[in-house]
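Anyone? Bumping this.
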Amino acid sequence: MTNQALAQYANLSLYSAMAVFTLAMLGYATYLAGLVPHRGRERAAAGAREAALVGAGMPGGAIAGSGTTTEAASPAAGAVPDEVPDEVPARARKAAGVAGTLTWLGGFLLVASAVLRGLSVHRWPLGNMFEFAVVGAMFTVLAFSVWSTRRDLRWMGLFVIAPVLLTLGLAITVWYTEAAELLPSLKSYWLAIHVTVATLSVGLFAVGATAAGLYVAKDALQRAGKASVLDRFPPAKNIERLAYSLHIVAFPLWTFTLIAGAIWARQAWGSYWNWDPKEVWTFVIWVVYAAYLHARATSGWSRQSANYIALAGWACIIINYAVVNVFFVSQHSYSGL
Amino acid sequence: MATETPLSTQPSAPDDGVNQPRLGLRGWLRFAWRQLTSMRTALFLLLLLAVGAVPGSIWPQRGIDAARTADYIAQHPTLGPWLDRLGFFEVYASPWFAAIYLLLFISLVGCVLPRTRVHFRAMRSQPPRTPARLERLAAHDTVEVDGTPEEALAAAEAALRGKRFRVARHDDESVSSERGYLKETGNLVFHLALIFVIIGVAIGHLFGWKGDVIVPVGQGFANTLSRYDTFSPGPWVKPDDLSPFSLQLDRLDATFEESVTGRGQFGQPRDFTAHVTVTDEPGAAPRQKTVKVNHPLEMDGASAFLLGNGYAPVITVRDKDGNIVYRDATPFLAQDNNYKSVGAVKVTGATPQQLGFFGLFLPTAIISKESGPSSVFPDAKKPALALGLYEGELFPQGRPQSVYTLDTEKLTQIKNDKGTDVLRIWLEPGQTFELPGDRGSITFDSVERFAGLSIRSDPGKGLTLASALLALAGLIASLVIRRRRVFVRVSPGKVPGRTVVSVGGMAKDDDDTLAEAVEEILDAVKRRMGTPR
């Protein structure tokens, strides 16, 4: 039944994807590094200017690093006149461009890996933890890449690709399961519907959580008046809005996951809701993200606190995947471990 | 007291407390209601619901696995009873969990109903008057076009209508418009549908029932209360009204993974199919059906699910004269993935004393030095029975007991012929073992399988599903649709025959494409007036 040669090709494709993502990660890291020295120069220039104005004291202490200061200070620093508004060194821009292309390539290699895995076992490739991880990583990368075509997300690349690479590393070592047929309870077309939408939704939540985390970090650093590379990222308000727009796509998908799971549970186990640990956590995640949407719409709550709730939701997704699958006694025990 | 205090401009001492108006009972109720239906409280209750649901995934739940729960309490003599008292083994039936979700739903109703009224009015009202200064709105732009102000206004109105804005003209020089009413409609539909989800769940709980039954191959069962091994009806179910079908298990096919030998796959179940004959009511024509995992058998008023399976070795016990005192396919309960199963044979008709056999069924048997008899594969490749024998009273005081174990309180274990050790019986299919002391014999005739069927009825599931899908549709509408107002004002240009058109837009919540929307309206006006400036 199982074609082990195809399964081998699937793994080869996965290893290639990991190599490609490693290069992409280096590219994005180079891009971020390209932002930093620029800021350093600017800081020196601004510091000098300030020293000239105020006399002695507090070098760099007063730099808020807002966009307007950057633009005002750059010509003073004697930077090469550049048409590009974000004034990133050409080398860094090139690195980010290559990284973006490599991210697409890695995404397609993951698609190939999932397809080959599916062909090798004649079924939908979402039957155990290893396969969830690969497809989840695939959707994360594709969601990021597709969103990148709509707006500049180069600043985010490193923070998306690094966790993806980590997940794939765990998948191929800790969670690896031989290609094989499914348990009878998984043999249903609902597998393709329920689990695919769930992993797609998790992929979107992953990018959304990255944006939420960066927003919270940037906002906190700005409040504290500390300068960092995050100052060179888009304004905090825009990052927050990006996080929100990802979450409002992911949340209805998660709602659908919940409903489709209930329909399937009714077919497989006789009752659409059994308070199985996995169901409980799917519900908890849904409630936490619902709380995020409410918090964001409530005037009394700050955007900061709302995004902490979104991050709590992401923590629940991680627990649901890495803890509930492995350690809890559940009818969803398909980890293959 | 208060009258004796002299008037003073001094600030009151801090321990006097805040000077609050007296609320009275109605006031307090109104205050409590306001608090409960506020968004902050709803948010708090939502987070509390999430936290409250978690313990049910950590500790075993009585409703799901009573045996594991009892086991946990026995293993944790100090913590267990306390957790039990606090309802941690029945989280989803506990009063505190119910308090959270009931408060949440009361809060939801209290929030949604007034909003429905407001929205209903808004749906039938006109967009408001154009504000005096459009440049103060979130998005604003101006353009000068050829044509009279009346023509420009007509063009703007047509452009807005084309973009499905609701349009109103409160004066001669401006147009007000609003769109995205469906956003709030979706929001309200989502929340109201959640209430119906809960109603559907409640109907299922009150009028639904489920029963589990073990049916060995070749046997059947009729849908009556007495036939079920366990039966849990909802509080409002009349057991007499169960649909009168009967069901016969003809064959049970089970296959297991034999070709893939990798970690976690060898010996995994691959397919279970129960071939059954169903008779909808006494006298009706029997129908051949199959029940598989994921493919329940849908019948009138109930569905049958194949939730378990195992082995039921056919065992015959004879007395010393060779008369059959017991012959049955006896279900043994699987303990691990290789179907090492425990079971008991209770021979109540044996004389002079009742006999009870207790032990293991092993589908692919081996005996290892370390762990004794065990099974290495789930399929019946080399089946064997390993039994011990007890003698005495099987059912002391008629207490209910499991069919898989013996109550050994009034039983004594039989020793082997020499009396050196307890009697150990090892049987393979077709073999007969002569019991010591003229007690007769036991024969392992053949191996059969049994199906663990669950028969369930949930009259609320249709409502729950429909409401859930409606909630999803409402949710998508509320998240995707943008509610915005656009105002257009025209005034004569400096040159006769030209008109200044200014457009302002505002959104209910933050809206990153509002400026684009304003530009689109302006472009549409320019196109209609036919004069690029």
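Late reply, but here is one note on the structure posted above: Chain A touches chain B through 58 residues (CB under 8 Å).
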